[in-house]
Design brief:
It contains six helices and six strands; from the N terminus they run E-E-E-H-E-H-H-E-H-E-H-H. It is of the alpha/beta class.
Length: 164
């Protein structure tokens, strides 16, 4: 937060955190993280401090909606994701977002290949904000959307705490 003093008027301007969650296709893990984080931020009454989105490293799912089992898992927790479609990260995203948060080490490798060196230190793994760093379980391969939910919820909760 920063204070601006304009001739006896003090205006409090909240710090804006721009977060982009990343996974391979942008239909499971990264949209789950996007919408979980949006819910956590709303519940904390901090919506004006955040801009949150998600994207893919691949082009495989561009334009596709959130994968139905991921959508169902979000719905179990009263989280909607209507209208979300997959898109690929761009170089402009690197310039725009403050935090680019990948779901696993393969995403990190692809981000570095696509974006080059992380000179602004924006790229990280979601689980690095928790007490158990590593990859978010990929339900596309495991079929275990509950494990992914638990990882995403833990990671987003820890991230929000970090940004408090």
């Amino acid at each position: 937060m920063r204070l601006i003093n304009r001739k006896h008027l003090i205006e409090i301007i909240p710090t804006m955190h721009k977060i982009l969650f990343i996974c391979h296709g942008n239909i499971c893990r990264s949209p789950m993280a996007e919408f979980v984080m949006k819910k956590l931020v709303k519940e904390a009454g901090r919506e004006s401090e955040f801009e949150i989105a998600s994207a893919a490293t691949s082009t495989e799912e561009i334009g596709n909606p959130v994968y139905p089992p991921a959508k169902r898992k979000l719905a179990e927790h009263n989280i909607g994701c209507a209208g979300k479609t997959a898109r690929q990260i761009t170089r402009k995203d690197y310039e725009y977002y403050d935090y680019i948060i990948a779901m696993d080490h393969n995403n990190l490798r692809n981000l570095h290949r696509m974006l080059g060196d992380d000179t602004q230190h924006k790229i990280s793994l979601l689980m690095d904000y928790t007490s158990r760093p590593g990859d978010v379980a990929d339900p596309w391969y495991t079929g275990d959307f509950e494990a992914t939910w638990q990882d995403v919820l833990e990671g987003c909760t820890a991230l929000l705490k970090e940004l408090a």
